[in-house]
């Protein structure tokens, strides 16, 4: 389960990311609570618009951010983006502590966070694969998700408590300090131990990531499923905060709900780390599980019964996202991994500008339970899309020598790029074997 820890670089990265992510979840909790209760009078639509501004840039800038992740040194990109994110956190803290923060200013900061994260996310996702051997990439992705969700388990609860004790401004200060852990980790990483990378120099290659995904039906269906749940089901800040208010809870109650969600998320990430590779059938099952658990949670009559069902919502969510992320990384041509991951992150993060305002509007008009139910239906639709693809693609068939057992043909690493020696560095040419072009479906 922990084989990626044999890499020094990955161990350092894991620890730095864990500390930084704890601070990030504390800040996310504080930001949501500020918009919902301090800058507005429980206006879920404003909260959805804030989320749209923060998660919209990955969708708008996807071509540029993916090219940057493939073209430039990812470690240096992360050093820059993490520094900028730390500065933005300090700026929000200063405005909150001096009492001059307004909703329009928060919208501006949300947009700035979104633009910076648009460059940070694909570089960070692709950098994980640079630190471990090819065979450990799926395990590293799963452990990275476990780190993220361990932070999600701790951060919101601590953040909610700190909001009550010291106020939202100081939560942003603490998050700014947590970025130092990631910056130190990036400085300590041994560049010579990173995997050699293919050199991409042509500006005409911006569209190759799109063409690559469009040519593979398995990636297209993966992206559609993730989009449906990301847009309409994963608006947890809106759901959890408004449900906490409905049950008569304050910021600490909202933080606890977010942390309970992370219990299931962590379990899903650790279970994914045990699998030898990511499989689409797991993604389909997890999407259905998400839809069912979300719908059940919308019927819960009390705070703690709602919290209990959130464990299963978190488990299915992270199982789905970790499987999708691992599948995309391990079956994508390394020359295009950054651009394809930028597309994937645009789907995950960029779907929020579409879904969050809708979820906020439904919450304001019909209540949070109706909004959660709508997200659950999206999960069931995503499962139906996956099942339809498996049947139509011809990959699902009866096993030989059995009457009722079915099997699904799995995808191995696929390259649709012609191996042009000019595009490869000497180190890559010496360390790799040419891969023949395979059909994706």
UniProtKB/TrEMBL annotation:
Alphabetical keyword list: Cell membrane, Membrane, Transmembrane, Transmembrane helix, Transport
Q: Which InterPro entries match?
A: MFS_dom (IPR020846), MFS_trans_sf (IPR036259), TM_effector (IPR010290)
Indicate the secretion signal residues.
none
Transmembrane stretches, start-end? 46-65, 77-97, 141-164, 221-241, 253-273, 280-300, 306-328, 340-360, 372-392
GTP-binding in keyword set: no
- Ranges of residues in domain Major facilitator superfamily (MFS) profile: 1-396
Cell compartments where the protein resides: Cell membrane
Q: How does it sit in the membrane?
A: Multi-pass membrane protein
**What SUPFAM superfamilies does the entry give?**
MFS general substrate transporter
Q: What is its main location?
A: membrane
Q: Name the chain's protein.
A: MFS transporter
């Amino acid at each position: 389960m922990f084989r990626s820890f044999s890499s020094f670089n990955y161990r350092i990265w894991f620890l730095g990311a864990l500390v930084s992510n704890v601070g990030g979840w504390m800040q996310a909790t504080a930001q949501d609570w500020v918009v919902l209760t301090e800058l507005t009078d429980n206006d879920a639509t404003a909260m959805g618009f804030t989320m749209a501004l923060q998660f919209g840039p990955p969708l708008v800038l996807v071509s540029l951010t993916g090219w940057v992740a493939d073209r430039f040194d990812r470690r240096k990109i992360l050093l820059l983006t993490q520094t900028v994110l730390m500065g933005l956190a300090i700026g929000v803290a200063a405005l909150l502590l001096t009492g001059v923060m307004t909703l329009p200013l928060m919208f501006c900061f949300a947009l700035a966070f979104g633009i910076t994260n648009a460059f940070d996310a694909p570089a960070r996702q692709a950098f994980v694969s640079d630190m471990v051997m090819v065979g450990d990439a799926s395990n590293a992705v799963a452990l990275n998700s476990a780190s993220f969700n361990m932070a999600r388990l701790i951060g919101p609860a601590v953040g909610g408590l700190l909001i009550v004790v010291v106020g939202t401004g100081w939560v942003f200060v603490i998050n700014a300090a947590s970025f130092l852990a990631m910056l130190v980790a990036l400085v300590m990483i041994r560049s010579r131990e990173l995997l050699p990378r293919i050199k991409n120099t042509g500006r005409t290659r911006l569209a190759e990531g799109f063409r690559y995904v469009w040519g593979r039906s398995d990636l297209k269906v993966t992206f559609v499923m993730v989009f449906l749940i990301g847009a309409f089901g994963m608006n947890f800040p809106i759901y959890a905060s408004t449900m906490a208010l409905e049950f008569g809870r304050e910021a600490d109650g909202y933080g606890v709900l977010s942390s309970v969600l992370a219990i299931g998320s962590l379990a899903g990430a650790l279970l994914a780390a045990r699998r030898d590779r990511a499989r689409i059938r797991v993604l389909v099952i997890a999407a259905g599980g998400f839809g069912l658990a979300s719908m059940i949670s919308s019927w819960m009559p009390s705070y703690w019964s709602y919290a209990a069902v959130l464990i299963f919502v978190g488990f299915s969510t992270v199982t789905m996202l970790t499987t999708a992320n691992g599948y995309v990384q391990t079956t994508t041509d390394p020359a295009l991994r950054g651009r394809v991951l930028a597309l994937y992150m645009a789907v995950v993060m960029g779907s929020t500008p579409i879904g969050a305002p809708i979820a906020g509007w439904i919450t304001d008009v019909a209540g949070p339970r109706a909004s959660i139910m709508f997200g659950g239906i999206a999960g069931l639709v995503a499962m139906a899309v996956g099942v339809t693809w498996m049947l139509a693609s011809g990959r699902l068939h009866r096993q030989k020598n059995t009457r009722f057992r079915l099997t699904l043909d799995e995808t191995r690493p696929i390259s649709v790029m012609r191996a042009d020696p000019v595009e490869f560095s000497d180190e890559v040419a010496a360390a790799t074997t040419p891969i023949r072009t395979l059909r994706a479906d």
